[in-house]
């Protein structure tokens, strides 16, 4: 049983929260993701939200959540630069799960306004700045009212995610972060999708294992067997957009 003193008290010091959650993460290691989600919903209720970029992991989490939470809360960061296939998947997801309370969050500046202020193709010349404006700021804004969030992060995805716990303290935002699929493999994710006949982005069948914004400098197809995130920001040292750092 999860105690609210471990998960639900935002007034704890960051150090105490981190230590408590690390211990809890060890206890929960190997639990079914559904069990972790049940505890998350039980502890936080309406103060909990799922982040979805409409990748296969978050599609799995949506399907799991609707089975235990009558009207699960989620958000999608619409950068204004998504592939048409990604936006079409959003509509398909809402058709399948009308109970999903999906908030679409946009940057403060449109793509056109950003171009006027910062120049064209900022995503190519200064990708960190572009991600900060189109992803990180909207994320921080949408998370502000909540005390906990759920992500589809998996350790297998990249070295920067290799230490992700199934639950952890998000020190940059002062809240709890759940990663129920942290220990799942790529095969487990896609087996769940096949078993439950879930919708997914057709670009995954065209060599795009990780899908972000549509410019080629942000998302490109990769060879079979290559690092799944090697198609992101190719030719740059950048490996993350900043949402999980």
Structure description:
38% of the residues lie in helices and 10% in strands. It is an alpha/beta fold. A six-stranded mixed β-sheet has the order 3-2-1-4-6-5, with helices on both faces. It is globular, with a radius of gyration of 18 Å.
Number of domains: 1
Helix content: 25-40%
Order of helices and strands: HHHEHEHEHHHEEEH
Count every helix, treating DSSP H or I runs of 4 or more residues as helices: 9
Function: Catalyzes the formation of sulfite from phosphoadenosine 5'-phosphosulfate (PAPS) using thioredoxin as an electron donor.
Pfam families: PAPS_reduct (PF01507)
GO molecular function: phosphoadenylyl-sulfate reductase (thioredoxin) activity
GO biological process, one term: sulfate assimilation, phosphoadenylyl sulfate reduction by phosphoadenylyl-sulfate reductase (thioredoxin)
Key descriptive features of the protein:
Phosphoadenosine 5'-phosphosulfate reductase, alpha/beta, Rossmann-like_a/b/a_fold, Rossmann fold, globular, 9 helices, oxidoreductase, PAPS/APS_Rdtase, 245 residues, cytoplasm
What's the layout of helices and strands?
Blueprint: H1 4-7, H2 14-28, H3 33-44, E1 48-51, H4 56-66, E2 73-77, H5 84-96, E3 101-105, H6 111-118, H7 122-125, H8 127-143, E4 148-150, E5 167-170, E6 175-178, H9 186-195
Parallel strand pairs: 1-2, 1-4, 2-3, 4-6
Antiparallel strand pairs: 5-6
Helix pairs in contact: 4-9
Keywords: Cytoplasm, Oxidoreductase
GO molecular function, one term: phosphoadenylyl-sulfate reductase (thioredoxin) activity
Pathway: Sulfur metabolism; hydrogen sulfide biosynthesis; sulfite from sulfate: step 3/3
């Amino acid at each position: 049983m999860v105690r609210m003193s471990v998960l639900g008290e935002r007034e704890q010091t960051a150090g105490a929260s981190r230590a408590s959650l690390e211990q809890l993460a060890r206890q929960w290691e190997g639990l079914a993701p559904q069990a972790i989600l049940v505890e998350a919903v039980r502890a936080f209720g309406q103060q909990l939200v799922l982040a979805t970029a409409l990748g296969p992991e978050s599609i799995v989490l949506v399907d799991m959540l609707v089975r235990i939470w009558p009207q699960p809360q989620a958000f999608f960061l619409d950068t204004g630069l998504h592939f048409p296939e990604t936006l079409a998947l959003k509509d398909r997801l809402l058709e399948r799960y009308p109970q999903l309370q999906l908030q679409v969050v946009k940057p403060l500046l449109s793509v056109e306004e950003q171009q006027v202020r910062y120049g064209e193709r900022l995503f190519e010349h200064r990708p960190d700045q572009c991600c900060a404006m189109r992803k990180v700021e909207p994320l921080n804004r949408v998370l502000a009212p909540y005390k906990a969030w759920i992500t589809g992060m998996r350790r297998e995805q990249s070295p920067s995610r290799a230490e992700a716990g199934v639950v952890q303290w998000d020190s940059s935002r002062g809240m709890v972060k759940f990663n129920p699929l942290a220990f799942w493999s790529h095969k487990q994710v896609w087996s769940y999708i096949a078993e439950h006949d879930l919708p997914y982005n057709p670009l995954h069948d065209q060599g795009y294992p990780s899908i972000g914004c549509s410019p080629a400098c942000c998302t490109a197809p990769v060879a079979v067997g290559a690092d799944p995130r090697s198609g992101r920001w190719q030719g740059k040292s950048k490996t993350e957009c900043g949402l999980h750092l």
